[in-house]
Amino acid sequence: MNTLDYLVVFLVILGIAGYGVWRTRNLRNLDSYMKGAGNTPWFLIGLSVMATQASATTFISIPGQGFESGMKFVQNYFGAPFALIIISAFFLPIFTRLNIYSVYEFLGRRFDFKTRLLGVGLFLLQRGIGAGITIYAPAIVLSTVMGWPLHATIIASGLVVTVYTVIGGSDAVTHTQKFQIGVIFAGMATAFVILLRHMPEDISLGEALTVAGGFNRLQTVDFNTNLNERYTFWSGLLGGLFLALSYFGTDQSQVGRYTAGHSLRESRLGLMFNAVCKIPMQFFILLLGVLIFVFYQFERPPVFFNQVAWAREVEKDKGQSLRAYEEQYREVQGQKQVFIERWLEAQRRGDNAAAVEARGQALTAHATSETIRTKAKAALKEINPKIETKDSDYVFITFILNYLPHGVIGLLIAAFFAATMQSKAGELNALGAATTMDLYRPLHGDRAPEIHYLRASKWFTAGWGVLAICIAIFANLAAENLIEAGNILGSVFYGVPLALFLVGVFLRWIHGTAVFLSAVITQVLIIVFYFNLSISYLWYNLIGCLICVGLAFLLEAVLRTLGRGPRPAAA
Amino acid sequence: MMSREDPGAPRSPAPDPDEGPALHPVTPAQLGSAETGLPMLRSWTAVYLTVAGIFVLWSTLLIVFMRAYS
User: Fold this and answer.
1) Which fold has domain A3-18+39-295+401-562?
2) In angstroms, rounded to a whole number, what is the distance separating the alpha carbons of residues A395 and A294?
């Protein structure tokens, strides 16, 4: 990065943060602070929902996922449109009519205070840790590659977003997100165009996609019913439906975004905007990674994409095994390139037999090069057992730094910071609102004037911002797999809140005590299952939800039989 | 008006038997009407069916894309 890049980064970050503060300078009441000015149009709501979900991890890691395993991951989002339709049709009218500050107020009104506390407690635990990981995950990649101090990167990105979220509340979050997502899309689109221009001159886009398809990188839809396959049409549709229902329907960081609309219509259209755009957006981010894969078939890729870590370990490598792997890899990549060129030439002249043969040779060479990469990673681990050998997160950023022009590098780095900020801002605003409205205000007795709760909300938001920074700093000390730990935490604790809301909305004859007891029992069971079963953690969300709903049915029936439960509702 | 079990819920207007009572004052504009304001798609059911149709279209295009280059 040169001065121009740094200038772009600072102008974008501080400019957007400054705009957020200026835009909300006259904010004086609790309603505006927590829910926005009440005039947010549908497209801003749609962008805000999209921005809160899309953290920097989305833009750094997903191209790497496309590079490594192709387009299969897009199926993960197949359940999202249907989840958003369910939320828009059934959840949103209730949230709008209740005019809630926090989605957990619904649980209090529908069931009782203890169920509301349980819902908000699970949210604060999970989202509080999640906010730290939102900062930590991109900071570790950026600081490694750029040579910046990790703690300074975490503190810088964490403090800026905390300041404007504390000052401007929900409105600042929404209005900064529109620029942040604009910068991200501009950066990604520029990277896409430059990537296409960096392909060899005689390779068309169609041929680049043929190469990607030839290496099985374009398998977008898989109707396989094998439960062991992680990404299939069915797991995406069913698992993705429950995951998206939990996230968009019961997580305050999302509900707070779309209930900021000035009418039910605007909120619904904002959700439908996401239902339509989510799949193509993820498709293009993955396609970017796939095209980087094709690009590196004609350009010599590094054997290990975290080049800073590689260079450091090469220094220590007395036996020179790493250098030897580098040489072997370079040689096989050269052979592979020759086979790919033969394959495309044969295809151009319509010689199918020769094309099939050359493709087979290219695939064999690719398998050899992947074996060398695996061995190189094992050697790396032998030299430094603490090193993280998963390098797919470094693929896109390595391409950016090595092949994009100055100025555009700055734009992309600014885009990654913007993505961290837009996501964290939504989370902080939600954490502050939930702490104030679901914990502080009820326990304080709701006696104070509104301005008191406005100030309290600002303090809580600031507190969560500082806590998120601390979690991000300690994450580095705790475990290298903390990002996965965050995902596991999400899956283990998402099923029960979803069940609470599903029972609340659809099963009106079930009451607070039954649903509260079933939620507590289910959460304990899911934790026990997690430590004793060997199924993928992605399933705990669905399992937790189903067990909790089933138990609530059962307990409600038992409580009524014993005559201890509430009388059946009149309506 | 609020449930005694939920001390956090502020005062609210009269309850609606279908949707449950409001927690905070809500204006008619916030609730809006059943109108979508979209040309051709007058009801929300039509909007949802269109969104589901677009999902089918995306899935089909993804399959066509995959088959074209495999």
Assistant:
1) Sodium/glucose cotransporter (1.20.1730)
2) 13
Instruction: Write out pLDDT tens, residues A25-76.
Output: 777 777 778 777 667 888 889 988 988 888 777 888 889 889 988 999 899 8
Q: State whether residue A504 is helix, strand or coil.
A: helix
Do the chains contact at A94 and B19, CB–CB below 8 Å? yes
**What's the Cα-to-Cα distance from A320 to each of A302, A303, A409, rounded to whole Å?**
16, 15, 33
Count contacts between A and B (CB, < 8 Å): 146
Name the average pLDDT for chain A.
86
Counting beta carbons within 10 angstroms of the beta carbon of residue A534, is it exposed (0 to 12), middle (13 to 18) or buried (19 or more)?
Answer: exposed
Regarding whether B45 and B27 lie in a shared domain, the answer is no
Say whether residue A71 is in contact with chain B using an 8 A CB cutoff: yes
Bridge partners (DSSP) of residue A261 are A40
User: Is the pLDDT score of A321 beyond 90?
Assistant: no
Contact call for residues A485 and A58 (beta carbons, < 8 A): no
pLDDT more than 90, % of chain A? 35
Q: What is the DSSP string of A194-224?
A: HHHHHS-TT--HHHHHHHHHHTT--------
Question: How far, in Å, are A211, A293, A427 from residue A217 at the CA level?
Answer: 9, 9, 34
How far apart are alpha carbons A253 and A239 in whole angstroms?
Answer: 21
Is A77:A279 a contact under the CB 8 Å cutoff?
A: yes
CA distance A438 to B6: 10
Every domain of chain A and the residues it spans? 3-18+39-295+401-562, 307-387
A40: helix, coil or strand?
Answer: strand
Q: Do B70 and A276 touch (CB under 8 A)?
A: no
A97 contacts B20 by C-beta, under 8 angstroms: yes
What residues have CB less than 8 Å from A383, skipping those under 6 apart?
A: A313, A316, A317, A322
Asked if residue A169 has pLDDT above 60, the reply is: yes
**Closest Cβ opposite residue B21 in set A109, A214, A262:** A109
ipTM of this complex:
0.85
Using the predicted structure, report yes or no on whether residue B11 has a pLDDT greater than 60: no
Rounded to a whole number of angstroms, the distance from the CA of A316 to the nearest CA of chain B is 43
Q: Which two tokens stand for residue A79?
A: 């359940």
SS3 for A418?
Answer: helix
Range of the domain at B17: 1-32
Question: By the CB < 8 Å criterion, does B57 face chain A?
Answer: no
Q: For chain B, how many structural domains are there in total? A: 2
> Sign (positive/negative) of CA torsion B55, B57, B60, B64?
negative
Pairwise CB contact (< 8 Å): A97 & B37: no
Specify burial of residue A295 (Cβ count, 10 A radius: 0-12, 13-18, 19+): buried
